[in-house]
Amino acid sequence: MSKNNVFGLTLVELEEVALQLSLPKYVGKQLAQWLYQKRVTSFESMTNLSLKARETLSQHYTIGRIPPSAQVVSQDGTVKYLFPCALTLQSTASVAQAVETVYMPEEDRATLCVSTQAGCKMRCAFCMTGTLGFHGNLTAADILNQIYSIPQSETLTNLVFMGEGEPMDNLDQVLKAITIITAPYGLGFSPKRITVSSVGITPQIKHFLDSCECHLAISLHSPFASERQDIMPTEKAYPIEQTVAMLKTYFGTQSQRRLSFEYICWGGVNDDIRHAKALVKLLSGLTCRVNLIRFHQGVDAINGNLFKPSDEIRMIAFRDYLTRHGITTTIRRSRGEDILAACGQLINQLAS
Fold this sequence. Notes:
The protein is of the alpha/beta class. The chain has helices spanning 11-20, 26-37, 51-60, 140-148, 171-182, 202-211, 225-231, 234-237, 240-247, 273-283, 297-302, 312-324; strands at residues 4-5, 61-62, 70-73, 79-84, 98-105, 110-113, 117-119, 134-137, 158-161, 194-198, 215-219, 259-265, 289-294, 328-332.
Protein backbone atom coordinates (compact mmCIF):
# COMPACT_ATOMS: atom_id res chain seq x y z
CA MET A 1 0.00 0.00 0.00
CA SER A 2 1.51 3.32 -1.08
CA LYS A 3 2.03 6.12 1.42
CA ASN A 4 0.86 9.70 1.04
CA ASN A 5 3.32 12.60 0.92
CA VAL A 6 3.56 15.37 3.49
CA PHE A 7 5.43 17.70 1.14
CA GLY A 8 2.90 20.02 -0.50
CA LEU A 9 0.54 20.14 2.48
CA THR A 10 -0.36 23.45 4.11
CA LEU A 11 0.15 24.11 7.81
CA VAL A 12 -3.51 23.35 8.53
CA GLU A 13 -3.24 20.04 6.66
CA LEU A 14 -0.03 19.11 8.47
CA GLU A 15 -1.71 19.80 11.79
CA GLU A 16 -4.54 17.50 10.71
CA VAL A 17 -1.98 14.80 9.87
CA ALA A 18 -0.50 15.10 13.35
CA LEU A 19 -3.88 14.82 15.04
CA GLN A 20 -4.92 11.86 12.88
CA LEU A 21 -1.78 10.03 14.02
CA SER A 22 -2.54 10.86 17.67
CA LEU A 23 0.40 13.27 17.82
CA PRO A 24 0.26 16.75 19.34
CA LYS A 25 -1.13 19.43 17.01
CA TYR A 26 2.10 21.43 17.29
CA VAL A 27 3.90 18.62 15.43
CA GLY A 28 2.19 20.00 12.30
CA LYS A 29 3.98 23.32 12.72
CA GLN A 30 7.27 21.53 13.34
CA LEU A 31 6.74 19.51 10.15
CA ALA A 32 6.10 22.70 8.17
CA GLN A 33 9.30 24.29 9.45
CA TRP A 34 11.38 21.21 8.63
CA LEU A 35 9.83 20.74 5.18
CA TYR A 36 9.69 24.31 3.92
CA GLN A 37 12.24 26.32 5.90
CA LYS A 38 14.93 23.77 6.73
CA ARG A 39 14.24 21.80 3.54
CA VAL A 40 14.91 18.34 4.97
CA THR A 41 14.08 15.23 2.95
CA SER A 42 13.73 12.66 5.73
CA PHE A 43 11.76 12.34 8.96
CA GLU A 44 14.95 11.20 10.68
CA SER A 45 16.39 14.69 10.20
CA MET A 46 13.55 16.30 12.18
CA THR A 47 15.48 16.23 15.43
CA ASN A 48 13.05 18.19 17.60
CA LEU A 49 10.34 15.58 16.99
CA SER A 50 10.26 12.67 19.39
CA LEU A 51 11.53 9.32 18.18
CA LYS A 52 7.97 7.98 18.45
CA ALA A 53 6.64 10.83 16.30
CA ARG A 54 9.29 10.26 13.63
CA GLU A 55 8.62 6.52 13.56
CA THR A 56 4.85 7.04 13.36
CA LEU A 57 5.21 9.52 10.52
CA SER A 58 7.57 7.18 8.64
CA GLN A 59 5.07 4.33 8.95
CA HIS A 60 2.27 6.30 7.34
CA TYR A 61 3.86 8.98 5.15
CA THR A 62 6.78 9.81 2.90
CA ILE A 63 8.33 13.24 2.39
CA GLY A 64 7.67 13.35 -1.35
CA ARG A 65 10.59 15.38 -2.69
CA ILE A 66 11.81 14.19 -6.12
CA PRO A 67 15.09 15.36 -7.72
CA PRO A 68 15.21 16.34 -11.41
CA SER A 69 15.90 13.41 -13.71
CA ALA A 70 17.78 15.40 -16.36
CA GLN A 71 19.14 18.86 -17.11
CA VAL A 72 20.74 20.84 -19.90
CA VAL A 73 22.63 24.15 -19.73
CA SER A 74 22.35 26.98 -22.26
CA GLN A 75 25.28 29.06 -23.46
CA ASP A 76 23.65 32.04 -21.67
CA GLY A 77 23.59 30.22 -18.31
CA THR A 78 19.93 29.21 -18.39
CA VAL A 79 19.34 25.69 -17.07
CA LYS A 80 16.40 23.50 -18.07
CA TYR A 81 15.40 20.67 -15.73
CA LEU A 82 13.14 17.67 -16.24
CA PHE A 83 11.00 16.68 -13.26
CA PRO A 84 8.92 13.53 -12.74
CA CYS A 85 5.46 14.38 -11.46
CA ALA A 86 2.93 12.60 -9.27
CA LEU A 87 -0.24 13.55 -11.14
CA THR A 88 -2.76 11.02 -12.40
CA LEU A 89 -1.86 10.75 -16.06
CA GLN A 90 -4.28 10.53 -18.92
CA SER A 91 -1.56 8.90 -21.01
CA THR A 92 1.00 6.21 -20.31
CA ALA A 93 3.59 7.72 -22.63
CA SER A 94 6.82 8.33 -20.74
CA VAL A 95 7.11 11.87 -22.08
CA ALA A 96 3.87 12.71 -20.30
CA GLN A 97 5.21 11.70 -16.90
CA ALA A 98 7.49 14.69 -16.55
CA VAL A 99 7.53 18.46 -16.92
CA GLU A 100 10.26 20.97 -17.71
CA THR A 101 11.34 23.82 -15.44
CA VAL A 102 13.67 26.66 -16.42
CA TYR A 103 16.18 28.45 -14.17
CA MET A 104 17.33 31.86 -15.46
CA PRO A 105 20.21 33.55 -13.61
CA GLU A 106 21.02 37.24 -14.05
CA GLU A 107 23.39 39.63 -12.29
CA ASP A 108 20.87 40.87 -9.74
CA ARG A 109 18.20 38.16 -9.76
CA ALA A 110 17.55 34.47 -10.27
CA THR A 111 14.19 33.51 -11.76
CA LEU A 112 12.56 30.09 -11.99
CA CYS A 113 9.92 29.41 -14.63
CA VAL A 114 7.55 26.82 -13.16
CA SER A 115 5.14 24.42 -14.89
CA THR A 116 1.60 23.86 -13.62
CA GLN A 117 0.32 21.12 -15.94
CA ALA A 118 1.78 18.25 -17.94
CA GLY A 119 1.22 19.44 -21.47
CA CYS A 120 -1.55 21.95 -22.15
CA LYS A 121 -5.09 21.98 -23.52
CA MET A 122 -5.15 25.62 -24.73
CA ARG A 123 -3.87 24.74 -28.24
CA CYS A 124 -2.24 28.08 -29.01
CA ALA A 125 -0.92 27.80 -32.57
CA PHE A 126 2.53 29.23 -31.79
CA CYS A 127 3.28 27.17 -28.65
CA MET A 128 4.98 23.81 -28.82
CA THR A 129 3.77 22.70 -25.39
CA GLY A 130 0.29 22.37 -26.83
CA THR A 131 1.52 19.74 -29.27
CA LEU A 132 2.10 17.42 -26.31
CA GLY A 133 -1.61 17.32 -25.59
CA PHE A 134 -2.92 17.54 -22.05
CA HIS A 135 -1.93 14.82 -19.58
CA GLY A 136 -3.05 16.18 -16.24
CA ASN A 137 -2.82 18.86 -13.57
CA LEU A 138 0.21 19.07 -11.33
CA THR A 139 -0.39 18.86 -7.61
CA ALA A 140 0.81 21.61 -5.29
CA ALA A 141 3.58 19.21 -4.32
CA ASP A 142 4.61 18.83 -7.98
CA ILE A 143 4.73 22.60 -8.35
CA LEU A 144 6.68 23.13 -5.11
CA ASN A 145 9.06 20.31 -5.93
CA GLN A 146 10.30 22.22 -8.97
CA ILE A 147 11.20 25.12 -6.68
CA TYR A 148 12.76 23.14 -3.85
CA SER A 149 14.62 20.44 -5.75
CA ILE A 150 16.90 22.40 -8.08
CA PRO A 151 20.48 22.99 -6.87
CA GLN A 152 19.96 26.78 -7.01
CA SER A 153 16.78 26.67 -4.90
CA GLU A 154 18.06 28.85 -2.06
CA THR A 155 19.30 31.58 -4.44
CA LEU A 156 15.94 32.21 -6.15
CA THR A 157 14.64 35.78 -6.10
CA ASN A 158 11.65 35.50 -8.45
CA LEU A 159 9.12 32.92 -9.59
CA VAL A 160 7.10 32.97 -12.81
CA PHE A 161 4.30 30.50 -13.46
CA MET A 162 4.91 30.49 -17.20
CA GLY A 163 6.09 26.94 -17.90
CA GLU A 164 4.01 24.07 -19.24
CA GLY A 165 0.27 24.44 -18.91
CA GLU A 166 -2.29 27.13 -18.15
CA PRO A 167 -2.11 28.12 -14.47
CA MET A 168 -5.71 29.31 -14.34
CA ASP A 169 -6.83 25.86 -15.55
CA ASN A 170 -5.27 24.37 -12.39
CA LEU A 171 -5.95 27.29 -10.10
CA ASP A 172 -6.72 25.45 -6.86
CA GLN A 173 -3.33 23.73 -6.84
CA VAL A 174 -1.54 26.88 -8.01
CA LEU A 175 -3.08 28.91 -5.18
CA LYS A 176 -2.24 26.18 -2.68
CA ALA A 177 1.39 26.23 -3.80
CA ILE A 178 1.44 30.05 -3.61
CA THR A 179 0.02 29.88 -0.08
CA ILE A 180 2.98 27.75 1.01
CA ILE A 181 5.51 29.80 -0.96
CA THR A 182 4.39 33.06 0.65
CA ALA A 183 3.54 31.79 4.16
CA PRO A 184 5.79 32.61 7.15
CA TYR A 185 6.09 28.85 7.76
CA GLY A 186 7.01 28.32 4.09
CA LEU A 187 9.46 30.16 1.86
CA GLY A 188 8.26 33.56 3.06
CA PHE A 189 8.35 34.88 -0.51
CA SER A 190 6.73 38.25 -1.14
CA PRO A 191 3.80 37.97 -3.60
CA LYS A 192 5.50 40.84 -5.46
CA ARG A 193 8.22 38.39 -6.48
CA ILE A 194 5.73 36.00 -8.11
CA THR A 195 4.08 36.38 -11.52
CA VAL A 196 1.34 34.07 -12.80
CA SER A 197 0.44 33.97 -16.49
CA SER A 198 -2.78 33.21 -18.32
CA VAL A 199 -4.16 33.10 -21.84
CA GLY A 200 -7.16 34.99 -20.45
CA ILE A 201 -9.60 32.66 -18.66
CA THR A 202 -11.60 35.50 -17.18
CA PRO A 203 -13.54 33.88 -14.28
CA GLN A 204 -10.44 32.15 -12.92
CA ILE A 205 -8.36 35.32 -13.31
CA LYS A 206 -10.91 37.18 -11.20
CA HIS A 207 -10.73 34.45 -8.54
CA PHE A 208 -6.94 34.62 -8.67
CA LEU A 209 -6.92 38.40 -8.19
CA ASP A 210 -9.33 38.08 -5.25
CA SER A 211 -7.27 35.31 -3.64
CA CYS A 212 -3.68 36.55 -3.69
CA GLU A 213 -1.51 39.59 -4.37
CA CYS A 214 0.82 38.11 -6.98
CA HIS A 215 1.48 39.82 -10.29
CA LEU A 216 -0.45 38.82 -13.41
CA ALA A 217 0.71 38.38 -17.01
CA ILE A 218 -1.77 37.96 -19.88
CA SER A 219 -0.80 36.36 -23.19
CA LEU A 220 -2.24 38.77 -25.73
CA HIS A 221 -0.46 38.54 -29.12
CA SER A 222 -3.15 40.39 -31.09
CA PRO A 223 -5.63 43.16 -30.20
CA PHE A 224 -8.06 41.95 -32.88
CA ALA A 225 -10.53 39.27 -31.78
CA SER A 226 -10.69 37.42 -35.12
CA GLU A 227 -6.91 37.28 -35.50
CA ARG A 228 -6.41 36.31 -31.88
CA GLN A 229 -8.95 33.49 -32.16
CA ASP A 230 -7.02 32.05 -35.11
CA ILE A 231 -3.91 31.65 -32.96
CA MET A 232 -5.52 31.33 -29.50
CA PRO A 233 -8.76 29.29 -29.48
CA THR A 234 -9.61 30.48 -25.96
CA GLU A 235 -10.47 33.87 -27.46
CA LYS A 236 -13.82 32.40 -28.54
CA ALA A 237 -14.84 31.50 -24.98
CA TYR A 238 -13.09 34.39 -23.25
CA PRO A 239 -12.81 37.44 -25.54
CA ILE A 240 -9.83 39.59 -24.69
CA GLU A 241 -11.99 42.72 -24.64
CA GLN A 242 -14.08 41.24 -21.82
CA THR A 243 -10.95 40.16 -19.97
CA VAL A 244 -9.47 43.65 -20.24
CA ALA A 245 -12.75 45.21 -19.09
CA MET A 246 -12.66 43.02 -15.98
CA LEU A 247 -9.01 43.89 -15.37
CA LYS A 248 -9.82 47.60 -15.41
CA THR A 249 -11.80 47.08 -12.20
CA TYR A 250 -8.58 45.84 -10.53
CA PHE A 251 -5.88 47.85 -12.31
CA GLY A 252 -6.96 51.45 -12.71
CA THR A 253 -4.66 54.45 -12.61
CA GLN A 254 -2.80 52.92 -9.66
CA SER A 255 -2.20 49.38 -8.47
CA GLN A 256 0.00 47.73 -5.88
CA ARG A 257 0.56 44.76 -8.14
CA ARG A 258 1.88 44.59 -11.69
CA LEU A 259 -0.15 43.72 -14.76
CA SER A 260 1.71 42.86 -17.94
CA PHE A 261 0.71 41.72 -21.39
CA GLU A 262 2.93 39.30 -23.27
CA TYR A 263 3.06 39.99 -27.00
CA ILE A 264 5.00 37.74 -29.37
CA CYS A 265 5.96 39.62 -32.54
CA TRP A 266 5.59 37.86 -35.90
CA GLY A 267 6.85 39.53 -39.03
CA GLY A 268 4.03 40.86 -41.20
CA VAL A 269 1.38 39.36 -38.90
CA ASN A 270 0.98 41.51 -35.78
CA ASP A 271 3.87 43.97 -35.75
CA ASP A 272 2.53 46.91 -37.80
CA ILE A 273 1.06 50.30 -36.94
CA ARG A 274 -2.51 49.00 -37.27
CA HIS A 275 -1.91 46.55 -34.46
CA ALA A 276 -0.05 49.11 -32.37
CA LYS A 277 -2.95 51.60 -32.59
CA ALA A 278 -5.49 48.92 -31.71
CA LEU A 279 -3.36 47.82 -28.77
CA VAL A 280 -3.24 51.38 -27.41
CA LYS A 281 -7.02 51.61 -27.69
CA LEU A 282 -7.58 48.24 -26.04
CA LEU A 283 -5.32 48.93 -23.07
CA SER A 284 -6.35 52.54 -22.52
CA GLY A 285 -7.20 53.14 -18.87
CA LEU A 286 -5.08 50.29 -17.55
CA THR A 287 -1.92 50.61 -15.47
CA CYS A 288 0.12 47.97 -17.24
CA ARG A 289 3.18 47.18 -19.29
CA VAL A 290 3.63 45.31 -22.56
CA ASN A 291 6.47 42.84 -22.99
CA LEU A 292 7.37 42.31 -26.63
CA ILE A 293 8.78 38.83 -27.20
CA ARG A 294 10.89 37.72 -30.11
CA PHE A 295 9.46 34.64 -31.79
CA HIS A 296 12.02 31.92 -31.26
CA GLN A 297 13.59 30.24 -34.24
CA GLY A 298 13.68 26.91 -32.42
CA VAL A 299 9.89 26.83 -32.33
CA ASP A 300 9.75 28.15 -35.88
CA ALA A 301 11.81 25.22 -37.14
CA ILE A 302 9.75 22.60 -35.29
CA ASN A 303 6.45 24.18 -36.21
CA GLY A 304 6.96 23.88 -39.95
CA ASN A 305 7.77 27.55 -40.49
CA LEU A 306 4.19 28.54 -39.70
CA PHE A 307 5.34 31.85 -38.22
CA LYS A 308 8.26 34.16 -38.92
CA PRO A 309 9.92 36.35 -36.30
CA SER A 310 9.61 40.11 -36.55
CA ASP A 311 12.85 41.94 -37.31
CA GLU A 312 14.57 44.22 -34.81
CA ILE A 313 13.65 47.47 -36.57
CA ARG A 314 9.92 46.68 -36.58
CA MET A 315 9.97 45.60 -32.93
CA ILE A 316 11.72 48.80 -31.89
CA ALA A 317 9.25 50.92 -33.88
CA PHE A 318 6.34 49.00 -32.31
CA ARG A 319 7.79 49.51 -28.83
CA ASP A 320 8.40 53.21 -29.38
CA TYR A 321 4.86 53.80 -30.64
CA LEU A 322 3.33 52.16 -27.58
CA THR A 323 5.68 54.05 -25.25
CA ARG A 324 4.87 57.41 -26.88
CA HIS A 325 1.20 56.70 -26.28
CA GLY A 326 1.56 56.04 -22.58
CA ILE A 327 2.08 52.27 -22.44
CA THR A 328 5.35 51.18 -20.83
CA THR A 329 6.80 48.70 -23.29
CA THR A 330 9.96 46.60 -23.29
CA ILE A 331 11.52 44.11 -25.65
CA ARG A 332 12.07 41.09 -23.47
CA ARG A 333 15.43 39.39 -23.60
CA SER A 334 15.27 35.81 -24.85
CA ARG A 335 16.82 33.15 -22.60
CA GLY A 336 17.73 29.54 -23.28
CA GLU A 337 16.70 29.49 -26.91
CA ASP A 338 19.54 27.12 -27.84
CA ILE A 339 18.22 24.45 -25.43
CA LEU A 340 14.51 24.92 -26.25
CA ALA A 341 13.88 26.65 -22.93
CA ALA A 342 12.45 29.94 -24.22
CA CYS A 343 8.84 31.04 -24.46
CA GLY A 344 6.69 28.38 -26.14
CA GLN A 345 9.52 25.86 -26.44
CA LEU A 346 8.88 23.47 -23.55
CA ILE A 347 8.12 20.11 -25.15
CA ASN A 348 9.81 17.72 -22.68
CA GLN A 349 12.73 17.36 -25.04
CA LEU A 350 14.86 16.05 -22.15
CA ALA A 351 12.55 13.06 -21.81
CA SER A 352 13.03 11.91 -25.40
